[in-house]
Structures are given as C-alpha cells and as structure tokens.
Amino acid sequence: MKRIALKKLLVILVAVFTAQLGYPQGGEKVEKLSDDERMEWWRDAKFGMFIHWGAYSIIGGERGEQIAGGGAEWAMDKLDYTIEEYEKFPAMFNPQLFDADKWVSMAKDAGMKYIVLTSKHHDGFALWDSKVSDYDIMDASPFKRDIVKELAEACRKQDIKFGLYHSIVDWHHPQAQGNLFPNYNAGQKDQSVVNPEFPKYYENYLKPQVKELLTNYGDVDIVWFDGDWIADYTTEMGKDMYSFIREIQPNTIINNRVDKGRNGMEGMDREGNFAGDFGTPEQEIPATGIDSDWEACMTMNGSWGYKPSDENWKSSEDLIEKLVDIVSKGGNFLLNIGPDGYGRFPAESIKRLKEIGEWTDANAEAIYGAKASPFERPAWGRYTEKDGVVYAHVFDWPEDGKLLLDKDIKLKKASLLTGDQSKIKGELTSEGLVVNIPEEAPNAYVSVIKLELLSKEDWAQKKNTN
Ligand code: FHN
C-alpha cells in the first residue's frame, strides 16, 4: 500500500515540477523557437476558421420581440439579462449534434489551416472542464462533455492547428464586470468604470483558467485574447500574461489583444510598445500592406454568435475576394462561423465553406505561403507573389481579352493557373505589357494567371539582344 502511495506522490511531484518549469502536460521539454520560426506556419497558413459558440448560441440574439443589435454573442448585455436569468442558458446548453470531427473537416475542406474556438466569451461560461470554476460545460450544463478537448483532438487528427479565443472581460465574475448589470460593458466607453477587485480576478481566475487551457489540452497553437478595452486591465497585466503563456507553452502564437495595442477595429497600434505576435483588424482590411504580422477577422453575416434573424450574408465571391485582398497585403484571414445551440453550422455558412474550398483547392499555389505583392494594386484585381512567381488574381475579367500588367513586370511566361495552362501570349503596347487572355474566365469568381518572371540575368540578356 505504502509503495503505491509513494508512487502516486512521486507522479504528482513530477507533474507539479514540470508544470512549474513550463512543460506542457507529459513533461517533454519544448524547445523555444525564434520569433520567425514560431510564426512560420502561421504566415504560410493565410486562412483560418473563427468559431463563436456558447450559451448565447441557444438565445440566437432574441428575447421575445426584442432582437439584440450587433453580435448575438452579446445577448447577456444587449438583452439585459441578470446573471441569474442568464445562468438558465448554460443550464439548457446541450448541443447533442456537436461533432468536432465534422467541424474540422468542413474547415479543412474550405482550405482553412487553423481553427480558433471561443473557450470563454464575455459571458464567462467556460467550454472546457475547468477546475477553477463550476461555471463551465461540465458543471453548469447538461452536456457534460469537454468541448475544448474534443475540438483539440479533432484538429490534431486532421493536422489542423488549434487555437483558443479567451475573453479578458467577464460579465459573470463579481471581481470583473459581474456587478455592472444591465450595462456589463460600461467599462468599454467609460474608463472611470473600474472594479478594485479586478487584480484578484486577474491573478486568481483569469490566469489560472488560461493556465488550465495551456496545460491540459496539449499544444495550443494560438491564444486569441479579446476584451482588452477595460481600464481594469492594464498593459502591465498584458505583458505579464504574454510572458506567462510563453513560460507554459513557449511557441504558442498570441494576438495583440493580450495587451493594449489593439487600437479599436483597426486592430493595430503601430506606435506603442505592446505585447502580441500579430495585429487584429476586425470587420475591416487595411488599405495597404504593413510591415508586421496581421490577421483580419470577419463574420459571414453580421453576427459572430448564431443569429438566425441576421440574413446579411456575404457572398462566396466577396469572401474569396477578401481572402485574396488580404493575402495580397501580407495578412491572414480569420473567417467566423457561429454554430447554433444544437452544435450545427448554419446552412448558409456550410454553402460558402464548400464554394470557398473549391476555389482554394484549385488556386492553392497562389495563396498558401504567398507574400504581399511587390506591385501596385491593379484595377482588375490583386497580385500575390511566391518564390519569384507572381499570381494575377483577376476579379473583373476584361471583355476584350486583354489584361494590362504592371509596367515593372518582366514577364518570361504567362499561363492560366487552372483550366488550359498553355502559354498565354503577351505584347508590349503603348500602355505597357498586355497578355491576351481567353474570352471565358476559368473561374466564376476569381481567375488566376501565373506570371513567371525573367531573372535579372534573363532580363539583361534580353535587353542586350533587343
Ligand atoms: O466583443 C467581441 C465580439 O463579441 C467578438 O468576439 C469580436 C471578435 O473579434 N471581438 C469583440 C469585439 O471587438
């Protein structure tokens, strides 16, 4: 008996020791990558799926005749639920149709290389088995399955990177914003709204929950913080949280909302010295590329959380053009799905994921691993560039079959990326280099022309022979 107790004690001590030293569960030491090494897969990935899912997904943004403005994930605040009233929703949250493998397959088939799931949104309800709080999927809901665990495992099975969104603000916790009913979000506009207890919430609740997520679910490839806007949360906390995560999982990529560098919907304070690995423009795309890592996040309709009354769906063509625009400017695209309370993706989302997937599959070469275009944005579309090859993404296919290229393009060979890939003829005109393209665009949405460029030597030789 004594031997077993001693063995158990030894196992516990080793777990505590390795956890303190920043080893993920299992104790294997993780080599800390350089910044560029850590960001490499993310920079190549280009396209990810955001998933906003929780108790608000059964509310759907409605309370009787009242429909919440904006995102349905804000139901607790926008529909004026007291904490007691809102706690009824986790108690009804029982998404029996949730199938993590299916969700990951739909993301993968759409050409998405990573998934970011809301582990806890502003309402404070945790989608994992938290030992820090009973306000979680195991104790406060009849579902009693660890959603974070199931999705993490499904991502690993299908070689999709796994990320977690985590809200700094918490409308349920009394030491955060839980005492601000009916305007839980008062602290966003009015920085004088503070909770002197917040540092206790930060140390004894927020950090321990982040630690659980980074210790109990294997590699967490991305931590996507949100709700950084309150005065209670300081830049000192932000920098402390960034280091805290680095100690637990050295190579996790962390967005800039871990600190105070978000700068509103633009998502990037380009002046200050803030922690975070990438900027987070929201529902917008920067006008031009910038010299740091960034990811634009967007909804497919107008709501992050499931909202059946919001039928303002972006078309697949628009979403593909947004992906291309973002990649042409050196960014990533995090496109949102708001599953319903049963655990289903909305039909309109599934339709778009399939159409986007057909396009990304056919044009993968021009997107994944591609860099921002070195050329001015053309009137007819966008350029991306990879390994010395330029890809012309034509949004508006010219009716006369003549596509004017940037004057600085030294063309060796032009060909369609899909369909008939034989060489396309080019000619020098008074306006510049024109390629004669087929009358019919190969793709209904965005058609890509592959432009192989002359090397410096080729160009010099061509000039000498002309
Ligand atoms: O308030 C949240 C909102 O609900 C949603 O999660 C977005 C996604 O980036 N972030 C905040 C608004 O900026």
Automatic annotation (TrEMBL):
User: Main EC class of this protein?
Assistant: hydrolase
Q: Which UniProt keywords apply?
A: Glycosidase, Hydrolase, Signal
Ranges for domain Glycoside hydrolase family 29 N-terminal: 29-365
Among InterPro entries, the record links this protein to: FUC_metazoa-typ (IPR016286), Fucosidase_C (IPR031919), GH (IPR017853), Glyco_hydro_29 (IPR000933), Glyco_hydro_29_N (IPR057739), Glyco_hydro_b (IPR013780)
Q: What range(s) does the Alpha-L-fucosidase C-terminal domain occupy?
A: 382-449
| Signal peptide (UniProt feature, chain positions) | 1-21
Assigned EC number: 3.2.1.51
- What is the role of the protein in this entry? Alpha-L-fucosidase is responsible for hydrolyzing the alpha-1,6-linked fucose joined to the reducing-end N-acetylglucosamine of the carbohydrate moieties of glycoproteins.
Family assignment? Belongs to the glycosyl hydrolase 29 family.
Q: What is this protein called in UniProt?
A: alpha-L-fucosidase
